[in-house]
Amino acid sequence: MLVLAIDTATTDLVAGVVDTATGDTLAEAVTATRAHNEQLVPTVQSLLDDTGRTFADLGAIVVGCGPGPFTGLRVGMATASALGQALSIPVHGVCTHDAVGAGLAGDALVVTDARRREVYWARYTDGARVAGPEVCKPADLPVDAVDVLSVPDNIEVAVDAAESTYQAPQPAGLVAVARLDQAPEPLVPLYLRRPDAVPPKQAPKSPALP
């Protein structure tokens, strides 16, 4: 089965076409950008063109549901949902951090930028999530006894014992943690906090009005 995997939860736009019969990634793109909305659909179309396939050849879609900022998550999840409805194929949501953590051995901490001087994190033991996802200040990260730390270069974390690297979500990782043999559950975004935009406060009623 051909699966389209997409993720817009981080500053990397991730998209790829994975063949579950062979485990091969037929085409993929991991692009550092904040223009997810403008680039996602053209990127997907380009990847399908590269494989000589069309949307009609897809059997399922896997999309990262965060944690991530509101705007970024909305792009990927809305696109996945729309494509799934148009093509009448299942859409499976997964935790973005799981796609990274599944490929890390030992005790690992996966960290992504949450903006507002905060980070999202989840902890894994041999690929299985054992804590998180959560949001906190970088100084409050539970980095004790971590073998591998996946953290963006722009985030400073005080840790000596761990191997420090950064691994973006990969299409194969997204597909690997999806339960494709089960009916998909409703897509639920992992915002972990309220969005930046808030409704304006209502102006007090003038005492001159009845």
From TrEMBL:
Top-rank taxon: Bacteria
Q: What region holds the Gcp-like domain?
A: 32-142
Annotated InterPro entries:
ATPase_NBD, Gcp-like_dom, T6A_TsaB
What GO molecular function annotations does the UniProt record carry, in alphabetical order?
A: transferase activity
**Parts of the chain that traverse the membrane:** none
Q: Name one GO biological process term.
A: tRNA threonylcarbamoyladenosine modification
Cited CDD domains? ASKHA_NBD_TsaB
* GO CC annotation terms, alphabetical: cytosol
The record's annotation in Gene3D superfamilies points to: 3.30.420.40
Q: What is this protein called?
A: tRNA (Adenosine(37)-N6)-threonylcarbamoyltransferase complex dimerization subunit type 1 TsaB
Q: Which organism is it from?
A: Corynebacterium lujinxingii
